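TL;DR need structure tokens for one chain.
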Amino acid sequence: MAQRLGARLGEGRVAEVFAFGDTVVKRMRLPEGKHAIFREAFVLAQVERLELPAPRVISVGEFDGGWGLQMSRIDGPVLAEQMLAGSALEVMAACHRLILSKPGAGLPALKQRVLAQLEQANISDSERADCLSRLASLPDGQALCHGDFHPYNIICSTEGPVVIDWPDATCGNPAADICRSYLLLHHHDPALAMAYVAQGAPLCGVSTAQVFAWLRVLAAARLSEGAAGDDARLRALMVSPPEANQP
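>> reply
TL;DR here they are.
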């Protein structure tokens, strides 16, 4: 029997979050929601085993007619609301370092996910061939990569920062996950994105050059995600990434 949800607490492109007693439920909008929810539940179970600051998965089921994931409720403002404070980047980088220090064993390979995105991206055959060649030459890795790590996915709870929204987690190279964060931040504030790489890369044990080596490939891969109005920016980063000016 479907279970009734409480007030809607937030929403994104593919899901909504509702109160459910003293917990929350993330309910998918997409027709393939059942598959996506079980996949995210598996990822959260893996993350919980690694003792990372993340919501705890409780159950998966049908909630008001849609497939949802019941999780522990984390209250507090998102880190994005504090990004003008000087310490916010430090908090974000420290969280990223903790995540990337954990093994990603058992999760999908980051390079395989990027490969699938490149096959679907709206780019020319020559661009695809170039990106596939670059991807093949980039290093593999065994780190836990969040895949969607940005300030709106960090909640500043009373017990410390908690990282949410894990469905894109993979096993891969730390530099790639930092580059992905650069791409997401760049959409809102290019200077902030560059500042994050300058601070986060060395903290996570990689160079800025290693981070930007992924940029052409990841910018092309993101074109497959249907980010509204973002094609021109992503194509510009494919043509002229900032790698040449980085140490």
